[in-house]
């Protein structure tokens, strides 16, 4: 079981029963994946800097992509017993300020593509104006 506080310090405990582990995972899930990112996104919107905006926009893009992928491959993923623990660790890496995993993936992925290879997205709001 992994327990993290808001300052980012984490404790890993391997001495839990299956029921305790499942309960802790279910309790941790919304905090790591939704509540803290929502809070941090609001703070980022209100801050003058751009770096935190990039981190949280990248997080929500990756979270959406992961959720959609998980929906498509649900029947396969349910046969992998550690999938939810791995997903939680990955999301924690994306979210925690010490790692800034979402920004890391954004920097390594989209910004390294030459201008001609980037996908240009059209804003649907602008199409109707």
UniProtKB/TrEMBL annotation:
Gene Ontology, cellular component aspect: membrane
Record localization: Membrane
Keyword Iron applies: no
UniProt xrefs under InterPro entries: TB2_DP1_HVA22
Keyword Translocase: no
Main location: membrane
Alphabetical keyword list: Membrane, Transmembrane, Transmembrane helix
Topological category with respect to the lipid bilayer: Multi-pass membrane protein
TM region positions: 24-45, 57-73, 79-96
Entry-linked PANTHER family: HVA22-LIKE PROTEIN E, HVA22-LIKE PROTEINS
Protein family: Belongs to the DP1 family.
Name the UniProt record assigns to this protein: HVA22-like protein
Organism from which the protein derives: Hibiscus syriacus (Rose of Sharon)
Organism taxonomic ancestry: Eukaryota, Viridiplantae, Streptophyta, Embryophyta, Tracheophyta
